[in-house]
Task: structure prediction
Amino acid sequence: MKTSLKIIFSLSLLFILVAFQTSNVLCNSKELKEKAKSKLEAYKYDNSELTKIIYKNKETIKEIEVSLFVGEKYRFIFELEALPKQVEVQIYNKSKDAKNRKLLFSSKEIGLDKKEFDFEISKSRRVYVDYVIPPQETGSYSGCAVLMVGYK
Result:
């Protein structure tokens, strides 16, 4: 009797967890990274970053610091197809806490509906990539974004 109750309880718990799963988009990181890496073209692979994006009831910003070597030319590839709702990508010369930071790139310039795009830069020691995550009115959603970095 106890064994059957444990099985029923375990199955019920599993059903509830699956039914209320917060992530409605599956992130296949290997596939996303391979797709982004193929777009590096003449650039050599340097680094990649998989960022989990969680949508909340207010706009949020997730920032990533990317260190670079002066004298090299870099290409950033963004792969955003695993996001349920598009985010804006902004690249700055300083962190969000610094004064006088300069916006180097915004995905708004190329259209927020793009799921893949690139950005090239040189003569910088580090940049800060901000994912501006829009608010989600109903439910809870998450996804992931891939940043692939190559150099010349």
